[in-house]
Each structure stands twice: as structure tokens, then as C-alpha cells.
């Protein structure tokens, strides 16, 4: 029988942050984290707790602004004002709106 726990060891939290690139499904991250826990002889974290932590950390990560291509397409489609859009292209992606 597999054991699982709501508390997660610090080493696994570090591993969880490393595994999460927002491209992998939460279930796959949970499986990989479980294998890592077994390798470290730690209790596997529960799926529910891993899901909760990932949802919180993903929501707190800063979102990047639109790409240059998205801005150009929005200008061409009339969704964004011309000069405002061009000014926006000059900003770093994190500062774009």
C-alpha cells in the first residue's frame, strides 16, 4: 500500500518547483515527485496537496506580456491603437500590456 501525506518535506518542495514548467500536467508532476520521494526515502505527497501547491504557485508567478507578433496582429486587426501599440513594442515584454 502506498503511503501519502499532506505535509511535504522541504527537499520535495524544492523538487516540485524544479519540475513545474506549467507544460506538464499536474498528474505527471505528482508521479515524478512521488518517484523522487521514494528515492529519498520520504513519504509520497498526496495528489491533492501537490495540486493545491501548484495552483497557488502558478497563480503567483508573474505573467509575461504579449509578444511582438501579438501586438502587431492586434494593431492590424484594429484591436489596438497604432501609436500605443508601437510604444508597447519598445517596452520589455514583462512591462507590455
The share of residues in extended strands comes to under 5%
Q: Major sheet: order of its strands?
A: 1-2
Work out the number of β strands: 2
Number of domains: 2
Number of helices: 5
- The best one-word shape is rod-shaped
What structural category arises from helix and sheet content? mainly alpha
Specify Rg, calculated over alpha carbons: 20 Å
Separation of the first and last Cα atoms: 50 Å
Low-confidence stretches: none
Average pLDDT value?
79
Summarize the structure.
This protein is mainly α. It folds into 2 domains: 4-60; 65-97, no CATH class. The chain contains 5 helices and 2 strands.
Account of the protein in words:
- By secondary structure, the protein is mainly alpha-helical.
- The protein has helices at 10-19, 26-39, 47-60, 68-76, 82-90; strands at 4-5, 44-45.
- The relative contact order is 0.14.
